[in-house]
Design a protein that fits this description.
single chain, 771 residues, mainly beta, 22-stranded antiparallel β-barrel, 5-stranded mixed beta sheet, 42 strands, 6% helix
Length: 771
């Protein structure tokens, strides 16, 4: 009996010992700098087994031998390893993962408002990572994004532009309001005009850029009719880290940038700043120079500061608060008497807080934000006499976005509620007369969304279905004139205020299906409906626009876009990725500027009266292709091509006297063809990035007729080459040379103004803190 008891005890101890050997404790590190990677997902087989904590640590309990261990994290390549007994020697199992520019197994949050692998999202998702950003000569985020297929950036004057736009898939290159832009999940489109101040985003602070093509209204509501862009900034990982750099270049452009931050336990902090200025150049055409003796260089100076603090111990709870200030003055190239001449200012103050956490099988996230832009434009000119007035506009945007997600069997259920508010209080204040012209208004949006993601056959088949309802209201809008003189008397018939609130509702569905039999191939099909409400500028502001006078229309309805697309990705080898997408969209109640048939004497001759109206149906269709070839760890090629047609299919003029029938015409500022070809090369002596870009013809005006200034119906084709050379010394010091438009191609915009041509910047910097 004693022998039996002894044997039983030995077997029990042996069983416990063996079970202990089946447990695995490990740590995930960045392969380049060997810092911990928090939030990495650890899988055994196809099952999520754990998530790394702040120190990159994880622990797996139970039988692990002969299982495939996989580790994935945003911005890194997928790591896989078959576990054996040798791995269970009692020591910490260390996993080193490599940074990666893009891959189908990387995680994004924008496409579903919850962290998901790209490979499990039926749709066209693009990701620009830190690696690609480091090889790019462009200093502006919008220019970097425009290297993706089907994405067009309008930035005629490079760093000197005070207004830039990014549009996708042919929904008009002048309308930023049709593409939603997020910064760390915070909406950046202003309710006043739908515009985004792209000068706020310094590429040196960006970790990655997520781009979701096609209508995103089923998740994000208005402004996402053409797609969604989310710019995600870096967070500190080391106890103390930082970077300072100085730069100088063409047109005596100079600047300083830097950041300093760190982590201690679960807490992290960071402070960053930017100062940049330039003497500028003359942007106007030769004809304008001869006709106007007051032409001067368009210069700029800007500064920005950002403070952030956060808490992140594990997936159970994370919180972050960010405060930013931006101040700039950009000259627009004319000076009569004012000290700096005609200028624009975009003084911006923003604060937002991000929260997310997990309890059981559910996770949640929310963001609360407040953005204020104090816009000022100095306008002066001398024609028959001298005129000077200032535009002063206070633009407020604030709200909260929330979501909750729960995994139940093969279902991932998501739901949430969003609240967004926008206000504008603006005045044109005249100093050469008694006039003051005010416009003001508010809008509010409340949205409810629900989505279900179903996975079948071990994620071979993925179905996503979602629906969102938005209710929007425009209220307290008005356009008023005080003490009018001849300068503004012609605007008196368009005054209004005290109108009842205007409200509307919109349903935005989306359904998509993906078939992915393995890691080498996937195919998807999707349908989505997007909508965009009118912006406050169209609802409540009347004023001068190029070529005429614009009248407010407080009764505008939302526009809608139905989009169908299909696409595929194919990886014949680990080194080559190919992708293609086909899409077609039908727009209804499209918002467009048209003539009312009237004209007004604005003091220097009769000019047509324009109004934004729901008058058009639009058809858009196109093709996007993309490839990436990794020849070796040191050499990568990438390229893409996009074809797009955006045509007005049904047009209804507002007045019988308006003879411009736009039926069959093409939308302006949408290139029919665009292509990019680039390479990234690392050598022991220098890193090099080269990008060749082609932008095909696009129409100048709505009538598709010859423009008197451009001298053609379309802008000419543009081919440019950008180059960036960089080198890091002693793991701390760096120097880079960026050349945009290497061959000095002259690029013109609709007013005949010319871009900066070849633009060269040299930057030197040093990393701070421990290496």
């Amino acid at each position: 009996m004693k022998k039996i008891l002894k044997c039983t005890l030995v077997l029990m101890l042996l069983s416990v010992a063996l079970q202990g050997q089946e447990n695995l404790s490990g740590q995930v590190l960045d392969a380049q700098n060997r810092v911990p990677v928090p939030g990495a997902h650890v899988y055994l087989g196809n099952k999520l087994a754990g998530v790394t904590d702040f120190h990159g640590l994880f622990k797996l309990d139970g039988a692990v031998i002969k299982n495939q261990l996989a580790v994935t994290a945003i911005g890194y390549s997928r790591f896989t390893h078959i576990l054996s007994k040798e791995d269970l020697d009692g020591r910490l199992f260390v996993v080193e993962i490599q940074s990666s520019d893009i891959g189908l197994d990387e995680f994004v949050v924008t496409a579903t408002r919850n962290e998901q692998r790209i490979s499990e999202i039926p749709g066209r998702i693009e990701l620009i990572g830190a690696e690609r950003l480091s090889f790019t000569a462009a200093p502006s985020a919008d220019e970097v994004i425009s290297t993706l297929p089907g994405v067009h950036s309008g930035r005629s004057f490079g760093l000197f532009s005070h207004r830039a736009t990014v549009s996708m898939r042919g929904v008009s290159g002048k309308e930023q309001a049709r593409t939603l832009v997020l910064l760390d999940g915070v909406p950046m489109n202003k309710a006043d005009g739908g515009s985004v101040n792209w000068n706020l985003f310094s590429t040196g602070d960006i970790e990655r850029i997520e781009v979701v093509k096609g209508p995103g209204s089923a998740l994000y509501g208005g402004n996402a009719i053409g797609g969604v862009i989310n710019i995600v900034r870096r967070k500190p990982r080391k106890p103390l880290e930082g970077y300072v750099a100085a730069s100088g270049g063409t047109y005596f452009t100079r600047g300083f940038r830097g950041n300093l931050g760190g982590r201690k336990g679960a807490f992290y902090w960071q402070a960053s700043g930017l100062w940049r200025a330039s003497d500028g150049y003359i942007t106007q055409s030769d004809a304008d120079r001869q006709a106007n003796p007051h032409i001067v260089k368009s210069d700029f100076h800007e500064k920005m500061a950002t403070l952030r603090a956060g808490f992140s111990r594990s997936e159970k709870f994370e919180a972050e608060v960010v405060f930013s200030v931006f101040d700039d003055t950009r000259g627009t190239g004319e000076k009569v008497y004012q000290p700096e001449g005609n200028t624009t200012d975009h003084d911006t103050y923003s604060v937002h807080a991000n929260f997310k956490g997990r309890f059981g099988l559910a996770s949640w996230n929310s963001v609360v934000y407040f953005n204020r832009e104090d816009y000022k434009r100095v306008s002066e000119w001398f024609k028959d006499d001298y005129t000077w007035y200032d535009v002063r506009s206070a633009r407020l945007d604030y709200g909260a976005l929330t979501g909750i997600h729960r995994q139940t069997g093969s279902h991932l259920l998501s739901a949430g509620i969003d609240l967004r508010m926008g206000e504008v209080d603006a005045a044109d204040v005249y100093f050469t007369s008694s006039d003051q012209v005010d416009n003001f208004g508010k809008n509010s949006f409340i949205g409810l969304f629900a989505q279900d993601q179903l996975k079948f056959f071990d994620s071979t088949l993925v179905l996503v279905a979602g629906l969102r309802y938005d209710y929007a209201t425009f209220y307290e809008g008005g356009f008023r004139i005080y003490d009018p003189s001849a300068e503004t008397e012609f605007m008196r018939p368009y005054e209004f205020s005290g109108l009842p609130a205007q409200s509307w509702g919109a349903l935005s569905p989306r359904i998509s299906l993906q078939y992915k039999p393995g890691d080498q191939f996937r195919v998807y099909a999707a349908y989505g409906k997007g909508f965009r409400p009118a912006v406050l500028d169209d609802l409540c502001r009347s004023g001068r626009v190029r070529g005429g006078f614009k009248v407010a229309n407080p009764k505008l309805l939302p526009e809608f876009l139905n989009n169908f697309e299909t696409g595929a990705d194919y990886r014949p080898t680990d080194k080559l990725r190919l992708s293609a997408s086909l899409y077609t969209s039908a727009g209804s109640d499209f918002l467009y500027y048209v003539s009312t048939g009237d004209s007004i004497d604005m003091g220097f001759g009769n000019r047509p009266v324009m109004i934004r109206a729901n008058i058009s149906s639009v058809r858009v269709y196109g093709l996007e292709t993309d490839f990436m070839l990794t020849v070796s760890p040191s050499l990568l090629f990438f390229g893409n091509y996009a074809f797009n047609v955006s045509e007005i299919t049904d047009f209804e003029a507002l007045a019988m006297t308006d003879g411009d029938d736009l039926t069959g015409k093409f939308l302006t500022d949408v290139p029919f063809h665009a292509a990019n070809l680039g390479l990234q090369l690392r050598t022991p002596y220098v890193d090099a990035g080269v990008l060749a870009r082609f932008t095909g013809a696009m129409y100048v005006n709505d009538q598709n007729i010859t423009d008197e200034i451009v001298g053609s119906k379309t802008y000419p084709d543009v081919f440019t080459v950008d180059l960036k050379l960089s080198r890091v010394f002693a793991s701390r010091y760096s120097v880079s040379l960026s050349v945009q438009n290497l061959f000095d191609k002259k690029i013109y915009e609709s007013k005949g103004a010319v871009g900066p041509g070849r633009f060269i910047m040299l930057e030197a910097g040093v990393a701070l803190g421990k290496m």
